[in-house]
Design a protein that fits this description.
By secondary structure, this protein is mainly beta. It folds into two domains: about 90 residues, Ribosomal Protein L25, Chain P (Beta Barrel); about 80 residues, RNA Polymerase Alpha Subunit, Chain A, domain 2. About 10% of the residues lie in helices and about 45% in strands. The chain is built from two helices and 13 strands, in the order βαββαββββββββββ. A six-stranded mixed beta barrel has the order 1-3-2-6-5-4. Strands 10-7-9-12 form a four-stranded mixed β-sheet, with no helix packed on it. It is globular, with a radius of gyration of 18 Å.
Length: about 180
Amino acid sequence: MKTNCIQAVERLYQKPSELRDLRKSGRLPGVLFGKNISTQMFHIPVTSFQKWMRQGHGPLQLQFTNQEPVSVVIEELQQNPITMELLHVDFQIVQGNEILRTKLPVKLIGVPAGTKLGGILQTQNTFVEVEALPKYLPNSIEIDISDMEIGQFLLMKDIPLPPEVVMISGENEQLVSLVKP
């Protein structure tokens, strides 16, 4: 399996205006944390990160200058809710032999059939919390909602997960529902 590697540059604490300038220059600020290490601030190229996100699955490594690459998973990704511009990313260092608890984003695919009759899609959760060895963790979970009708809903237990991945979120938590207008 090919591992993607993104060049990361360490950074010091920056004011909000300095972070805005960093984003305008095509860089995404972030933090890296994990067991037995101190939190490290950095920035990466937005284009490289977006390319990795579009691939949907696969391991990611951050390459800092004069250091060995570090395997990571996304812990949190902040976006502007209107423009969807990437604002900040938190990465957690992973050890290959250690079970990891993390949140996976849920991507809804398709347009529910019930919306043609005026139904409104309500999203209650945009992520699912899971545990697994890092090599089995996907970047996100895709769910096809194109067959949903008014009055239907999806629960966490309806999410298709690989057998090596254990769901931590409550199975009866609602993910999405299609309601009457």
